[in-house]
Amino acid sequence: MARKERPLEGDDGPLLRFAAALRRLRHEAGSPPYRDLAHRAHYSVATLSGAASGRRLPSLDVTLSYVRACGGDPQEWERRWHAVALELRALPSAGASRAQAGDPREEPCPKSPAGPLRGPYVGLAAFRTEDADLFFGRERLVEDILTTLSRNRAVALVGASGAGKSSLLRAGLLPRLNRDEPRRPVRLLTPGPRPGERLKNALAARPESGSAELVLVVDQFEEVFTVCTDSDERARFIAALVEEAERPGSGCRVVLGVRADFYAHCTRHVPLVAILRDAQVVVGPMSAAELRRAVVEPARRSGLTVEGALQATLVAHAHGQVGILPLLSHALLETWRRRRGAALTLDGFHAAGGFEGALAQSAERLHSSLTDHQQRLAQQMFVHLVALGEGTEDTKRPVSRTEFGQDADTATVLAKATALRLLTLDDGRVELTHEALIRAWPRLRGWLTDDRERLRTHRQLSDAARAWESLGRDPGALYRGARLASARDLVTSRRVVLAPVESAFVDAGTAAEAAARNSARRRARRLRHLVALLAVLVVVAAIATVDARRAEDEVTRQRNDAVAQNLADTATELVNTDPGLAVQMGLTAYRLARTAKTRDALLSTLMTSVRAHGKEVLAVAYRPDGRQMATASGDHTARLWRVHGTGRPVATATLRGHGDDVRAVVYRPDGRMLASGSADGSVRVWDTAIPSRPSLLVSFTAGREGGLRSLAYSPDGRGLATAGGDGSVRLWDVARPSAPVLLTRVTGHRDTVRSVAFSPNGRTLASVGEDGALRLTDITHPRRPEPLATLDAHDTGAFSVTFSPDGRTLATAGGGRTPVRLWNVTDPGHPTLLVGLSGHTDVVGSVVFSPDGRTLASASDDRTVRVWGVGRPAHPTALTTLTGHITAVGSVAFSPDGTVLASGGFDGTLRLAGTNPARVIDDACAHAGPRVTRAQWSARLPYVAYAPPCG
């Protein structure tokens, strides 16, 4: 029998209330033993029981693991945790509150014995003097400060918010001064609301005549402008401080830590001008070598190692980023908590949520600390700082500080947001510290979605209205149901101005809906007469036992269908927040009702997902041997990955050098080389024989106007086609990869060429463009291309083209009611349309055939990937619809053996899905994580007996 928990003792404070609530949650989950919870949560028994002891506030990670193990709502408990942490920090004794809340660096780590372990990283907080043994990477800057201080009586250390000034002063400069001989007395102060009084107290420690000088370090000097509201006291403090440093025989030197966005404030005070002019040390971003030292050395000092792939990832993310250091430190702390033995791994970093996880927690802490009015201001502020993408990922938007109000509430929001490193203030501008916040903070995504849905709805309405007009106002093209309701909401919101054709389209849809309702009423009246007759027949039928049983079975089936459909929706919603639970909900839905919807939902939950790039993934490609793949991104890089089936891909190298978005990657047919093409017009060819050490063979320009959009190798690998914004396709001889030779330009398109493909025999080149045209060209003699056929393939632009492996069928993708179209190109001079595929609700940007040619995949801006059976091209069938990407899907590719389908999204993720549904479903429980709890089950399936799909 499990030992009874010790009663909670002490005053009824926030800690005891929080512990009591945790205990209630465990009781409601059936009071599982802590040993069972430890198995589910991956924390020790002592750690989990201590979380509910009421002696101290557990870490957020421990709390959420406890909650998930008991089947609670993690989002609700995260809000509770932040509220209690804020309440504890407001207690009269700062020391007590820190002890109760727990230093984030002294937390038990998963699967380790209980008891505090000091981590090698300090998290979001600034380094303290006692953390000096963990502070690395700023040694050169410390020497610069000391050198400048030796030549001047006062020094100004200037840097942007989040650049690490406080850490540099407290953990870098102060310990170094304390080690000097003769040892110099050091006093550290922050101005606060009464800076004069604090200065007086600090100077009371002045050394006796003849002894070493006092070094007075004023951290967060900007507080004289933000916290001190008395302008006279501010002026007296500044004058006294500078005078004390410069007065002969004063025995005092001064170091000021100044935030860069307060530089102008400082220049308004004459005593500070000379210091800023003659004795200024600037804190900029760390170099790559300094970042690597800051990451590796603290771990090494603690007997730990940092995996090489993790080092490369961290340095790549943080290099050149202003304000990134606190986020880096926090990500490292969370990775340490998930270390594997004595190693910090890339998997641990991803499990901790990377940089984004730290951002989300900080953002919620900010939001919960604000008043209702301040929360509304914060919403307006953060949304204002985001530029909504049009076909690209949202980006941060620097804004002048003057664009926000000057009232106290606005100042409070800004101050708290910068203190948590969510915002950076520099040079009079405000901006998000990192664009990852846009992706990582669900609340901000929700704010943006409100506007985004309105904009997306309007764009879809415009396209539909134009198509309706072009079809002679065909009633079959009108909106109905939910789409019509959304369009009417758009009209009544008065937040957009509709064009005349759009208004007419909505009015016609509304009239058609009213007519349909009237027709339905007439049918209902007829049905009522039939029902009276059928009622008699039902009574007779109910007498028969067999028929009664069948009726009962039908009711059960219909109930299961309804529950399963709802549960399938729940599973897809959980994919990005709780993948293991999503798999189990999807599997349960599929077992309740084996429908296409439940199958698709389950397959979507079983996709492997990795954060591939910091911005949108624009292209994906497999190496012909299937062991490596490449991704291209709007972050100006391409990346190589080691892959094995649907297992988690491992990044092996990042390819840099392009000056703009990398829009295309393609492997040479022998797999030894990769070509990448960019919006800057450049093509770079890489030797990828050793995936971890790719080498650049050549870089050349293939057209600057509009940049490159597509690349394709010829089947023999000796030719390369490049296409882009100038409306032409260039053919290159790349038999010598390091010395490409331009053979010819194929012209004819009236706008940007978006995609190009060689036929399997290498004799025909297909191209599609934003002019909607499909052009087929005979390139049997590459220097003398001959046009074969030109077709208007898509009314609203064509964006992708691909040949089937046998060369008899061509697929194109674009916009319109049938965004995917199949063509018979057995005779390339006379191509004919076979069929248009409908189902996608937005533009399709990528199509690809499977290696056996029996399957086609399409990726769309509607955030889905659809798979079609095309064994009989004239009679295709819809097979699967995969969801999971939270924004548009930009590219799709089959593995060479056809068993995996890869997709790259504008959300920056790479997703891998198995193509054999039966085999994937059979292996589902291997991906399910901890078994679904009774509480989780009853919350979602209250009318179905508890039957976890995975043991």
TrEMBL record:
Residues 95-115 are annotated as: Disordered. It comes from the Bacteria. Transmembrane segments: none annotated. WD repeats lie at residues 610-643, 655-687, 701-734, 746-779, 791-825, 837-868, 882-912. It holds the Pfam family WD40. SUPFAM superfamilies: lambda repressor-like DNA-binding domains, P-loop containing nucleoside triphosphate hydrolases, WD40 repeat-like. PROSITE patterns: WD_REPEATS_1, WD_REPEATS_2, WD_REPEATS_REGION. This is HTH cro/C1-type domain-containing protein.
